[in-house]
Design brief:
By secondary structure, the protein is of the alpha+beta class. The chain contains 10 helices and 6 strands, in the order E-E-E-H-E-H-E-E-H-H-H-H-H-H-H-H. Strands 4-3-5-6 form a 4-stranded mixed sheet, sandwiched between helices. Strands 1-2 form a two-stranded antiparallel sheet. Strand 3, helix 1 and strand 4 (78-81) form a beta-alpha-beta unit.
Length: 323
């Protein structure tokens, strides 16, 4: 979503995220260190040591907030929330509703955090960011890895003893996360940011083939990997939650709505109605974040009023047994 990137420590609005056929290609994250329970990585899981920088609009950052809630790590890991609308310098902190200022580094722009960690940084300035207050460095900015660390490595600090990566399901969870990543999680972006008809049609076709597949899977079980909530469900939820409000229109993902999928829609409501999921959801930030930040897609920056969605209406997932 960023309007620019850093090159040798300098901000530029020039970036290339497409291949020669007009297909959107994601730029890899660059900070890939790990926090471990025993500290063997050099970063020990300790209460009060780490800080999360997130956006409520961003699905990748949203994953980490959900895991933080589910594990009960709110007191152990502090958080800052950026303004939903990007400035010409990328993510920023403001006085807007829902924003939480940077109480750790007192930055005005997220790029300041990247430069503090690496003064000559080259790459995108993205959320989430896991910051180590002790060594004053970014540990990791890859959402999947941060989610796993919060789930597994921070488990001794968790106040809610829920395991979303149980040994018996680990292979299945990893396979499910891999299976949904490119066609669905990235697929909405590949559709929305395509700059050729062929690239768009390939991406949107794969996206709905993926949704069709999971609609079938979820007709037979409550969650992605069976009848137990796992990390894979967090990955699915953040895309489904944004789909009808943003991706359907803004990204031209309009073959069907999630509302049109009985199992995906009821599954989405089931997850949303968990207090830990609901506490992290902010459709106002999401809609303004996408529609007002991506001016190449929506130059007028007009935010649509609809659609009207009731995530609190009853669902039918109890037919698979209690959560």
């Amino acid at each position: 979503m960023a309007p620019g990137m850093m090159v040798q420590g300098k901000w530029t609005t020039q970036r290339n995220e497409h291949d020669q056929s007009g297909r959107f290609k994601a730029i890899p994250t660059t900070f890939r260190d790990r926090v471990t329970a025993d500290g063997s990585s050099g970063f020990k899981a300790e209460a009060g040591r780490y800080h999360l920088y997130v956006s409520l609009a961003c699905p990748w950052a949203h994953r980490t907030l959900i895991m933080r809630e589910l594990k009960g790590l709110n007191d152990a890991i502090s958080v800052s929330i950026v303004d939903p609308v990007m400035s010409d310098k990328g993510w920023m902190f403001s006085a807007a509703p829902g924003v939480i200022a940077d109480s750790v580094n007192h930055a005005h722009y997220l790029q300041e955090i990247y430069l503090k960690a690496t003064p000559n940084y080259t790459g995108r300035v993205t959320v989430p960011v896991l910051w180590d207050k002790q060594t004053q460095i970014i540990v990791n900015n890859e959402s999947r890895e941060i989610v796993r660390m919060l789930d597994v490595e921070f488990a001794p600090l968790a106040t809610q003893k829920i395991d979303l990566y149980p040994v018996s399901l680990q292979q299945k969870i990893d396979e499910a996360i891999d299976a949904m990543y490119l066609p669905i999680n990235v697929g909405v972006y590949r559709s929305g940011f395509a700059i050729s008809q062929a690239a768009y049609e390939d991406a949107v076709t794969e996206l709905f083939e993926g949704l069709d597949r999971w609609e079938t899977v979820l007709s037979q079980q409550r969650y992605v990997c069976g009848n137990q909530l796992t990390e894979a469900d967090i990955g699915m939820f953040v895309t489904l939650y944004r789909f009808d409000s943003v991706y359907h229109g803004h990204f031209k993902c309009n073959l069907r709505r999630i509302l049109d999928y009985p199992n995906l829609w009821n599954y989405l409501k089931d997850l949303y109605q968990r207090p830990e999921f609901k506490a992290t959801c902010n459709l106002d930030h999401i809609k303004r974040g996408y529609h007002m930040s991506m001016t190449e897609i929506n130059p007028t920056r007009i935010v649509p009023k609809g659609p009207v969605l009731n995530f609190d209406e009853p669902h039918d997932r109890d037919r698979f047994g209690n959560a």
